[in-house]
Structure formats: C-alpha cells, structure tokens
Amino acid sequence: MTAPDRDPARVQAMFDRVARRYRITNTILSGGQDAFWRRRAAAIVKAWQPTRVLDVATGSGDLARAIERTCPGAKVTGADFSAEMLAVARRLGSTDLVQADALALPFAEATFEAVTVAFGLRNMASWPDALREMHRVLTPGGHVLILDFSIPTGPLRHVYRPYLHHVLPHLAGLLTGENDAYQYLAESIEAFPSGAALCTLMEAAGFTKSVAEPLTGGVVTLYTGQKPASQS
User: CA distances (Å), 95 to each of 60, 86, 198, in order?
Assistant: First the structure.
C-alpha cells in the first residue's frame, strides 16, 4: 500500500476544507463512539490533576472542552494549524486557542503539566519530531495522552478493513463532498504505528511508563506516557 502524503500544506488545506462538517461526520462514522473515547481520555487527564493542559491538533476543540468540563480548575489551551478548524472551535465556545504547527510549538519548555492529542499525531509530517516537541513543553513529571485510530486484531479486523477502505470514504464523501480526504484517512490509519510500535516511538522521544489501551475492540487506541521527573 502506498504511504499517505503527509505534506503539511496538503494536510492543512484538507482540514480547512472539511472543517464545517468535521464533527458531525466523525460522530456518524464512529457510530457515536467518539464521545465515549473523549470521555475516557478526559477521565485519565483528570486523574493527573494538571493545572495547565495543551491540546495539540485540537481541531474543533472537542477534547479540549471535554477536559475543561472534567478538570474545571485547569487552564486548557488548544493549538492547531488549521484556521478553519480553529474558527469552528471558537464558535463552539473554545476561547484559549493558538494557531501553531505541532512540530514547532510557540511555548517555552516545561509550560504544561499535560499534553493531549486526539486523532492528530497520525497526520503530522514527523511523528518522532512531534513527540519530542510535546516532551519539550511538558513539565518534569508531566504526562502525555495520545488518542488515535488503529487496526483491530481478531475477527473484527476482517470486518473493519473493508469498512475503512470502501464504506467510510464513500459515506464521508456524501457527508462532506471530500472523498479524497477520507481516502487519505484510511491510508493514514494503515500506515500509523500502533500498540507497542507507538510506545517505542514515545520512549525514543524521552517518555517513560508508556501504555497502550485499545478501545472499541481496537478501532482506536489510547496511549499515555510520562516525562521523567528528573533527567539523569
């Protein structure tokens, strides 16, 4: 299978085009499971008790707002390189938003106690560079949470792959008029390292205690890791 083109300009333009229909399309294509995935992610962040959270590739801000509801004492900043996605987030009530490239975040080292990214790391031009940048802006002892699509194992795998490559792009094309964007989605999910492979990338970027938690039969996986409290 040909690797998807993750050229930043192409990906940015693609998300700008689908921004207005992005949320409703995700809800329909996930069968409403996207809300459950965000609740699970927000519950994990709550247990860390952060006061400053950065949601990278925040898109329409859904995860950032879920964290704000769950952690009312935390300041949650959303960053994304798509102006159109940020405009949607603002209309939905997000206020602390920054247009930024995840590979060059405009924040000082050790600014946030938690960094999250939902369905965004997969689209970045360099996964290792993005992970290192998230590590840089975390305080020592801070946590990272990554939520992204994965390929299920077991019998569900044989049902999911035809849905991913044939049903999903067609249905999403009807909803958004952007068939190519959702064909890219299928290709990017196949190419993205998941499970132990992504944990290995996280550890190479400096994170410890990396854990992968499959959700909904492995359709998505939730990863967590920690920046060491002190550098040896």
Answer: 12, 10, 31
| pLDDT at residue number 2 | 41
Rounded Cα distance, 104 and 131, in Å: 11
What is the per-residue pLDDT for 1?
40
DSSP string, 20-61: GGHHHHHHHHTTTHHHHHHHHHHHHHHHH--SEEEEET-TTS
DSSP string, 67-111: HHHH-TTSEEEEEES-HHHHHHHHHTT--SEEE--TTS-SS-TT-
AA letter at 211 = V
Beta bridge partners of 226: 143, 208
The domains located in the chain, with CATH, are: 8-226 (3.40.50.150)
Q: How far is CA 164 from CA 8, 151, 186, in A?
A: 23, 10, 6
Given a contact cutoff of 8 angstroms between Cβ atoms, the answer to whether 74 and 53 are in contact is: yes
Q: pLDDT tens digits, residue range 85-134? A: 999 999 999 999 999 999 999 999 999 999 999 999 998 999 999 999 99
User: pLDDT exceeding 90 applies to what percent of the chain?
Assistant: 68
CA 141, distance to chain mean position in Å, is 21
The tokens for 11 are 């990906």
Q: Give the per-residue pLDDT at 224.
A: 98
